[in-house]
Amino acid sequence: MSKYYISASILSANLANLGQDVQNVINAGADMIHFDVMDNNYVPNLTFGPVVCESLIKYGIMSPVDVHLMVEPVDDLIVKFAEAGASFISIHPEATKHLDRSLQLIRNKGCKAGLAFNPSTPLTCLKYVIDKIDMILIMSVNPGFANQEFIPSVLSKIKEAGDIITKSGRKILLEVDGGIKEHNIKKASVAGADTFVIGSGIFKTDNYKETIKNIRSNLE
Predict the structure, then answer these.
(1) Per-residue pLDDT tens for 137-178?
(2) Could you confirm whether 76 is annotated as catalytic?
(3) Which of 47, 138, 150, 211 is deepest in the core (most CB within 10 A)?
(4) Which is the catalytic residue, given 31, 134, 177, 194?
(5) Domain count for the chain
(6) Contact 152, 159 (CB under 8 A)
(7) Range(s) of the domain holding residue 154
């Protein structure tokens, strides 16, 4: 198995034919399906709820579901997405009053816990909760909208997060989300990322299989 994972963001999928479009991208080689969950409160947009997650799983989607909660507060939706079948649930440290408790809730509900950082959010809190997370998600755009440009200064933050993971000695995925395309994914991987959220870079192309093949070629 490749050491790199592609998490295809349904924010850019064909919502009128979501089940089939998601299945097509999995068949083309995506490793996970990514949910950008926005509440028009923590971020200025409104997207998917847990019923969409549950519906895709009932449709027959077997790949891990990677849920990124851009919501505030988080605890209620942690429970609902876990019950809907999520595999990973990532939250932002600013979105909960009790970060340690919220991360533990994710794990108690049987999911892997992720901690997401906006471009300007420091990684300081990691040293207090590193034992409770399975993924670090670095945002390479400001959250809230699809089709944004990758922020180059985030590359140093990816490296910083990778160094923290190495020092911890724990197996933690390092995910990057925002503006990832064929032309810049290698820079993110060299900085230390191993998991890549890609939306329009896959779903807005004509041939998912060829696109994912090219992405993996750039990584390797």
Answers:
(1) 999 999 877 778 899 999 999 999 999 999 999 999 999 999
(2) no
(3) 138
(4) 177
(5) 1
(6) no
(7) 5-219
